[in-house]
What we know:
It contains 10 helices and 8 strands. By secondary structure, it is of the alpha/beta class. It has one domain: Rossmann fold (3-Layer(aba) Sandwich).
Amino acid sequence: MGAVRPYADIRKSDIKENLTMPHTIAVAGKGGVGKTTTCGMMIDYLCKTGKGPLLVVDADANSNLNEVLGVEVDTTLGQIREEMAQAELKGTIPSGMTKADYAQFKFNSALVEEDDYDMLVMGRTQGKGCYCFVNGVLKTQVDKYANNYRYVVMDNEAGLEHVARGTLPHVDTMLLISDCSRRGIQAVARIAEMVDEMELKPGRMGLIVNRAPEGKLDDGILEEINKHGLTLLGVLPQDDAVYRCDCAGDPSSKLPDGNPVKIALKGIMQSLGL
């Protein structure tokens, strides 16, 4: 993409409507259940229904949300962390700039602009250490620019580290994604328990079950959902077209709107008023 201004850098006077606090959506679930594919289709739905501009944050080090969306990403925050570490070690931070100033300068280069959303990818680090410093910079940027977006969508790791660290100013909607297995339901139940233990207090939280044969759940899975007190928002069917996209590395979010998974997800989003 060209070096054009991201929504985050647009002055409020440039925005056609007076944007206030954005609606924040956090998506979580264990790996391999179609969490990122579902998140990508959700972003596609929000864009197509005029909900932009969006800030999309891929906060899962093992995720590939950009591939689901068909977006090329040149720089991640994980890479910036490594560059920062090397710059400190070699003393190559430009004179007159603090470490925080330099990190924010590099952060701006990691923001990818698309027509209806900006995207930031956390990525992973090559060395030892946590994301504490870069996560702090990310939180500062989100706090500074969030009101220039109508929605903020974050694809999380199962551990919810970035949500727990307060990267988002608040969480309006927490979506837990599982496949239609007992172990998958048990995994999101543990995530729901973490949400309570961390006192995250999202405005609402519910479960979306993915990859269900013919879009239906058997009694055993429904029993497991009820056992853990989870709120079932809806069910997405198993779909060959999505599977073929995943195998070929094609962006599944670009599937036709008549795709069964997209139709089912649209119904869920509408039921949530999104």
